[in-house]
Amino acid sequence: MRQVLTAVSEENIRIVPAIMIGGSGTRLWPLSRSNKPKQFLTLGGDGQDSFFQQALRRFAVPGYSLPWLMCARDTLVHAEEQVSSGGFAVDGLIVEPSMQGTAAAIAALTVTISRMDAAGSNAVLLVAPSDHIIAEPALFNKTVAAALPVARFADRIVTFGIKPEHPETGFGYIRPGEALEIDGEVRGYAISAGDFLEKPSLENAKRYVEEGFCWNAGIFMFRAGVMLEELARHAPETLQAAEEAFEKATVDMFADVPAVMLEELAFRAAPADVPVDTAIMERTARGAVVRCEGIGWSDIGSLSALHEIDRNKDENGNALSGPVVSIGSSNTLAYARGGRKVVLIGLEDLIVIDDDDAVLVARMSQAQKVKDAVNLLKQNKMPESRATREQLYGWGKVRLLSDQGDLSVFTVTLRSNAMIALRVPEGYWENWAISSGKIDIIRNGFVRHLVPMASIAPSEGEVLSLYNGAAKESTIVVTRQRSSERNLAVVPKAFTADTLLDIISVEADLPVFDLNMVPDSTLDDEPHPAN
Q1: Terminus of the chain with fewer CB atoms < 10 Å: N or C?
Q2: Is this structure's pTM higher than 0.90?
């Protein structure tokens, strides 16, 4: 059977991309950690876009409006940095204060965009994950354009199904129903509750492929008003939480676009860990699936997927990145990220990842067990399970160079015009040396200008403010030594990049001063007073 509809003109209808930024990607450990999620990884050579930047570029073509981004507080700084460094433009950001599941996230972004976009409830949203690969974006966008009438005029919530390339037990499947014909052309297929099938056995996966089922890619397109109606019908608590979180939100500005900070208490009232498939798609009578074929889709769910998608494998099927030398090896994935030369001799079907603080070696067939290894590291309270040696902040970044208990060395990098306050921990001696740029140290109401090779030794417990007035980043190297005089009173602490500043960042009223009123010197024995 077919449902036959007639569409009005699609001219001047712009699709609003809503890019979802979530997940820590532990199955890509050690490349991906909690403080560096996989969507922000750049896995190829210099200048290559991250997965997130590829998503931004995918929609920077005619037919789309500027995208909205939805991310957690922890990933906001990464999103802002990669939007800025890539020269991308966005319409706004939505910051979810807790991870409540995709039903709450999509409810919140739908409420926000319908209230802030000029099209209101008629805005057509395309919700897409930020960490998927689509090797043929032009073909994908052509499919999206063909599916637009299904969402805009047939008032369907469209999900995009991937034509399977092989039987796969790691994906959910969608069974297409009756054809939806618009203007004499089949644009999609109706779906209902029984058409969503969980991850199958291999036997069932083979049958699903033979019967024309699709992989569930988790990409949706819908008119905002339709999603709001279906949320009200099937998930009213989730919708109410999203509306209240938006109404009580605060709005900051990022590069002249709004950053909507959803109110936490209201947002947490949404039922937790509920996917949109369960809340809406398996209940609504307005669902549809549009088949995608040949777009080169992958959700990068494992390290072995990185090998599969690599289009620059050598003649022996090796996917190599970084300073890697291969002799007599085949079908191997090797990434060198730790600054060391990695040499492969006679390997086959292996994964070798050399990161700056961890090394992983595994059989290609065991790639899914990486998640088990991360859980084991967590159980043993090993910081490498969650953090890399570098941590981004809104004002800059910290990189841990060495930690030997009594002695730690790390760098603090400030962005242009950034300012922070630091305190020397009790029981420790520190020396701060400028390695690049220029940093103004505000100490006891006076300013000292430090340039490369200059240093300062603050006292234990002292609070100092650092300001970078240069046009580019400035970096100091901090050497921290446990005080021998406090040897018995102070227990050495192990630091990681994501916890390093927890004990030395302070909430303080930072002095306001005008650099134009302070003589520009390199290092002043008699510091000039701050205003």
Answers
A1: N
A2: no
